[in-house]
Design a protein that fits this description.
Blueprint lengths: L11 E5 L4 H12 L3 E6 L2 H11 L4 E4 L8 H11 L5 E4 L14 H29 L2 E6 L12 H21 L4 E8 L5 H7 L3 H9 L9 H12 L10 E4 L8
Parallel strand pairs: 1-2, 1-4, 2-3, 4-5, 5-6, 6-7
Helix pairs in contact: 1-8, 4-5
Length: 253
């Protein structure tokens, strides 16, 4: 039945950075679709509150995604205690708003560590286990900064653009094992991180709004719905896709 094609019943989904913002929006959507949801993050109190919002059966694991050496054991622990990871959403991130001239090597590397290097490690660990089962869906959360030049976010832009190369390489390597790999590029989505980045810069905020044809910011649910589609059987023949969810901002004038 068509109404069941978006169901995730019986599947387990790991969402990094699932305690707030876009990650929480995805987690709630997946739970509504029947998935066993697992979220990770650094703050226990935030994760506890998020699990209450997500609903029965949701689990959390305290984890700093930047600690690459811990990721293999994290995956092992989740698969022992929850079950095989059918869906991975690489969402965890941090933001750095600074002109390139003021961005230090250490700051640049720190952003790459969270948004790219650790994402590579976690995706490899999960994909290798998916390969054994000949099934899986991996979703990267990229950014509109991967398709348009923006000032003051050089590290973030570099990492989110590199994610697309990682997505394409993984797609080429893992498709024969029935593992689908796709990426979503959120536009300006309402979250604490986004508002922190733009509220102190009214001119930048207005510039952003002026180029969104829908004339409004998106909501975490909008990204959740797109992720649900890509994770579900409705997208069974879709892989290697870069999907902007941006209210038309990338194409607007």
């Amino acid at each position: 039945m068509m109404e069941n094609i978006l169901s995730l019943k019986g599947k387990s989904a790991l969402i990094t950075g699932g305690g707030t913002g876009i990650g929480l929006g995805i987690a709630k959507t997946f739970a509504t679709a029947g998935a066993n949801v697992v979220i990770t993050g650094r703050r226990t109190d935030v994760l506890i509150d998020a699990v209450k919002q997500i609903g029965d059966g949701a689990r959390y694991y305290v984890n700093d995604i930047a600690r690459q050496h811990e990721l293999s054991e994290l995956v092992n622990k989740i698969e022992r205690e929850v079950g095989p990871i059918d869906i991975l959403v690489n969402n965890a991130g941090q933001h750095l708003k600074k002109p390139m001239s003021d961005t230090t090597d250490e700051e640049f590397l720190s952003v790459l560590q969270v948004h790219l290097l650790s994402v590579f490690s976690l995706s490899r660990e999960v994909a290798n286990r998916m390969r054994e089962r000949k099934s899986g869906s991996i979703i990267f959360i990229s950014s509109m900064s991967a398709v348009m030049g923006m000032t003051q976010v050089v590290a973030y832009t570099t990492a989110k653009t590199a994610i697309l190369g990682l997505m394409r390489a993984m797609m080429a390597e893992y498709s024969a094992d029935n593992i689908r790999v796709n990426a979503i590029a959120p536009g300006w989505i309402e979250s604490d991180m986004m508002f922190k980045a733009i509220n102190a810069d009214e001119q930048r905020k207005q510039k952003i709004m002026n180029r969104i044809p829908f004339n409004r910011f998106g909501k975490p649910q909008d990204i959740g719905n797109a992720a649900l589609f890509l994770a579900s059987d409705a997208a069974a023949y879709i892989t290697g896709v870069f999907l902007p969810v941006d209210g038309g901002a990338a194409q607007g004038f």
